[in-house]
Amino acid sequence: MAQPNHDPTAGDVLGAYLRSQATAFLRALRLHDAGAAGAGGGPLGGDDGDAAHGLRGAARRIASSLSTFRVLTQASWADPLRTELVWLSSTLADEHAYAARLSRLMEALQRLSASPEVPAPRGTGAGALTVGAARAGALLERQLTLARTRAHSATLQALGSARFHAVADAVAVLASEVPLDPVAADGRPDDVLTPLAEMAGTRLGAAVAALPAAGASTPYSAHADAAWHEVRRLLRVHRYAREALGTYEPHLAAASEALNQHRDASEAATASATAARTPRIAPATAYALGVLHADQRHAVEASRLTFHTLWTPTAAVPAAP
Question: Ranges for the CHAD domain (predicted)?
Fold first, then answer.
């Protein structure tokens, strides 16, 4: 136990952060359990959706910290927990992602069908896009609602499994006691935590530097999205590392949001392209899906430009107490 006037060690700082995130996880779990009691097994929404969001956020932060600051922890305990938290956050994210993707695509179809700037297919009437958009919307709704239903079932199965209960038990232990390596954790935060956080920043910087320059004219390829998704992941790791040190950098949050928009548009474009490959769909439906795909790819490019614009490091601001 730290003595009065004792400067906090690296273990004190990391331990406080991990305990706070473990507490947030358990709070979200209680909210989920309360919501599940009256939800009747339907899709996540309201308080239950908020609970899932809270569980995902806390799980990601704990897992990321256990990776970035691994040398401070007892690896035999931390490594398995990190793996399980990554599984949990990924599982919980799927249902929300399908619902958000459907909502995004329906809004885009409505906007495009009302836009005078979108031409109708050659040889058709002026209302052809509207008709095709309605059919495309119905097709997307069937496909994505089915995917969401399956994801919801997988979420319920995961949250009721012995695997999840073991994770929850481990996080409950973490809320009161963080298994740290006594030697590594005894160092000064600036000597131990800061260099580790900077390594996460260096990996991020290298990944950003490898991206095509803003405005670069390159042929469209969905495979190129993977590099951007990796930057998004590394930026999240970097943000959580800075957060654990009590530092808030507004430009990182804004850049992260731009990459979230990039991910959403990219996955929406993929969903529209997948729907367009459905056998025996009407030409007007295929045309509307093609217009939708192009619209979402434009959104991808816009998000990339926004990210490049925001990627200008600024002075760090201490986090609010």
Answer: 18-316
Question: pTM for this structure?
Answer: 0.88
What gap in Å lies between CA 18 and CA 220, rounded to an integer?
42
What distance, in Å, lies between the first and last C-alpha atoms of the chain? 22
Q: pLDDT tens digits for 255-270?
A: 999 999 999 999 999 9
E strand or H helix at 196, and its extent? helix 189-209
Any bridge partners for residue 180, and if so which? 73
Q: Long-range contact list for 112-118, CB < 8 A, 24+ apart?
A: 112/288, 112/291, 112/292, 112/295, 113/288, 118/291
pLDDT tens digits for range 178-218: 999 999 999 999 999 999 999 999 999 999 999 987 666 66
Q: Cα separation of 137 and 272, whole Å?
A: 10
| 103 SS3 class | helix
| DSSP strands (E only) in the chain | 247-248, 317-318
- How many C-beta atoms surround the C-beta of residue 87 within 10 A? 16
